[in-house]
């Protein structure tokens, strides 16, 4: 960060707090965590928990970007430091986070392999979005993904050489491709056991990523697959913190709060939640001292979050965009959107253990979080990668309701609104863009069948479901 580290009048950072940050950076913690997918959510969540852990001085993070290097470039200029602004309904609180000690472009494979080979590295965390893993719904490598296919060819050739990076050009471009190459480097170096902790909104995300990694490794060689089985643990997680993309206004707010010119500031809500289940064979930070919870079974918590928060976000995004809204808060101020949200929550709640998860309190908290007008969460940001998101956020609720003799009508609003936007030509970026385009080119009814099949082919088998989706998608004007 440039400029003298002096808080301006009204700053929430005291001189003592700033001095503590300066002292922490002067004695940067050793890298013991590698993160893949350096973006605003990681900085608001895992990096924040690590920074606030009781043993933070023992746990530094080397964070690598995914598709674009910009976040690494911004953070590297600031020695990994950035402002985290917690934006409540009426005021901001700011803190400087110092847990990221190396911010790197994901393409710097030599550095990634260096850190993953080190016995000091105990954990890999990932935030690459649901679609970013490039796996099919069963956790197997997506056969039609050209990036992953090229990565596997590169890794197979590299595994036969003494130098994993000796092949010029064509280095892995996918998160899993890079991670598999890093695990091969660790195996060769005798780096010891390690835990992989995916932090994306995927059911049983630990098992899901394990299936994909082992499948890729098995195609490269039995030795690597066996090593992963013996030395790598996969931790399942539920992560929860609303964190929109940083805007120029947010950067100005960071300067006003701290007096620093911060190009990597992050704005998030005060609420945060992290539930984890799994083993850490090489140790972990005391994340529980920062509020994380360790449980024997994370599934109920992840379903609560996936459906009640993420599913609701998708519903608001597609239904809200059809009604002309731009942000979650705007959609929440629309009585029609709010009614649909409550109806969807009623359906999803029936499929969850209410007492264990304290669902009434969780829903009340979500209302307050969604209605926060100072967190400007764009609906178009939520609406990206609809195929992967609807598959885990909406389709399971529809299928569960149907299996119990109900129609799932409230959940179908989200899927039907997505269909209407896609068929209406809305620009909604999606990793499955080619498949969406191919499906959309068919006659309208066949296009709807093909699009729904991308989300979950079981839905197409339900005549009444498809009839309802056709009606919702055909409705003109604001719905």
Strand and helix map with partners:
Layout (H helix, E strand, L loop, with lengths): L14 H12 L4 E6 L3 H5 L1 H7 L7 E5 L5 H8 L4 E6 L4 E6 L2 E5 L4 H9 L5 E4 L19 H14 L15 H15 L4 E5 L6 H16 L1 H10 E3 L1 E5 L7 H11 L7 E3 L4 E5 L15 E2 L4 H24 L5 H5 L2 H15 L4 H4 L1 H12 L8 H4 L3 H8 L1 H9 L5 H15 L9 H8 L3 H12 L1 H4 L2 H12 L5
Parallel strand pairs: 1-2, 1-6, 2-5, 3-10, 6-7, 7-8, 11-12
Antiparallel strand pairs: 3-4, 9-11
Helix pairs in contact: 5-7, 6-7, 7-8, 8-9, 11-13, 11-17, 11-19, 13-19, 19-23, 20-21
Describe this structure in words.
By secondary structure, this protein is of the alpha/beta class. The chain folds into two domains: 15-294, 3-Layer(aba) Sandwich (Rossmann fold); 299-474, N-(1-d-carboxylethyl)-l-norvaline Dehydrogenase, domain 2 (Orthogonal Bundle). 50% of the residues lie in helices and 11% in strands. It contains 23 helices and twelve strands. The radius of gyration is 23 Å and the shape is globular. The model is unreliable at 1-15 (pLDDT under 50).
Features:
single chain; 479 residues; alpha/beta; Rossmann fold; N-(1-d-carboxylethyl)-l-norvaline Dehydrogenase, domain 2; 2 domains; six-stranded parallel sheet; three-stranded mixed sheet; globular; disordered N terminus
Task: Give a quick precis of the structure.
With 479 residues, the protein is an alpha/beta fold.
CATH superfamily of the largest domain: NAD(P)-binding Rossmann-like Domain
Radius of gyration: 23 Å
Using the 3D structure, state the CATH architecture of the largest domain.
Answer: 3-Layer(aba) Sandwich
Number of helices: 23
Largest sheet, in brief, is:
6 strands, parallel
* Class of secondary structure makeup: alpha/beta
Describe the strand arrangement of the main beta sheet, using strand numbers: 5-2-1-6-7-8
Characterize the overall form: globular
Uncertain ranges: 1-15
Helix content: 40-55%
Strand percentage: 5-15%
| Name of the CATH class of the largest domain | Alpha Beta
Number of domains: 2
């Amino acid at each position: 960060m440039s400029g003298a580290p002096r808080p301006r009048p009204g700053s929430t950072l005291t001189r003592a707090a700033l001095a503590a940050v300066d002292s922490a950076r002067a004695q940067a913690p050793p890298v013991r965590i590698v993160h893949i997918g350096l973006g605003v959510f990681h900085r608001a969540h895992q990096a924040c928990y690590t920074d606030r852990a009781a043993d933070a001085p023992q746990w530094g993070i080397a964070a690598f970007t995914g598709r674009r290097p910009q976040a690494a470039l911004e953070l590297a200029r600031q020695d990994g430091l950035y402002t985290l602004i917690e934006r409540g309904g009426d005021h901001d609180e700011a803190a400087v986070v110092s847990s990221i000690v190396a911010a790197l472009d994901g393409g710097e494979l030599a550095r990634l392999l260096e850190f993953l080979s080190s016995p000091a590295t105990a954990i890999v965390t990932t935030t690459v979005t649901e679609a970013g893993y490039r796996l099919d719904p069963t956790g197997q490598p997506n056969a039609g993904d050209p990036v992953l296919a090229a990565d596997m060819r590169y890794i197979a050739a590299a595994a036969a050489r003494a130098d994993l990076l000796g092949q010029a050009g064509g280095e892995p471009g996918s998160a899993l491709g890079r991670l598999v190459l890093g695990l091969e480097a660790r195996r060769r170096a005798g780096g010891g056991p390690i835990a992989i902790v995916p932090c994306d909104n995927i059911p049983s995300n630990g098992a899901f990523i394990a299936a994909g990694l082992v499948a890729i490794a098995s195609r490269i060689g039995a030795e690597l697959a066996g090593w992963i089985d013996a030395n790598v643990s996969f931790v399942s997680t539920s992560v929860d913190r609303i964190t929109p993309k940083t805007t120029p206004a947010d950067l100005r707010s960071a300067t006003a709060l701290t007096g620093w010119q911060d190009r990597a500031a992050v704005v998030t809500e005060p609420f945060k939640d992290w539930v984890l289940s799994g083993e850490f064979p090489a140790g972990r930070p005391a994340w529980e001292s920062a509020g994380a919870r360790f449980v024997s079974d994370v599934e109920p918590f992840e379903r609560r979050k996936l459906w009640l928060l993420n599913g609701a976000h998708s519903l608001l995004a597609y239904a809200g965009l059809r009604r002309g809204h731009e942000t979650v808060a705007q959609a929440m101020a629309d009585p029609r959107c709010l009614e649909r949200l409550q109806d969807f929550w009623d359906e999803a709640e029936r499929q969850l253990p209410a007492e264990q998860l304290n669902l009434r309190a969780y829903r009340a908290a979500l209302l307050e979080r969604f209605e926060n007008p100072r967190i400007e969460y764009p609906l178009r940001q939520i609406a990206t990668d609809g195929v992967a998101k609807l598959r885990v956020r909406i389709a399971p609720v529809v299928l569960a309701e149907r299996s119990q003799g109900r129609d799932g009508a409230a959940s179908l609003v989200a899927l039907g609104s997505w269909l209407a936007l896609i068929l209406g030509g809305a620009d909604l970026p999606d990793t499955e863009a080619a498949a969406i385009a191919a499906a959309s080119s068919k006659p309208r009814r066949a296009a709807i069948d093909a699009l729904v099949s991308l989300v979950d082919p079981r839905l197409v088998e339900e005549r009444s479901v498809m009839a309802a989706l056709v009606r919702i998608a055909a409705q003109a004007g604001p719905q």
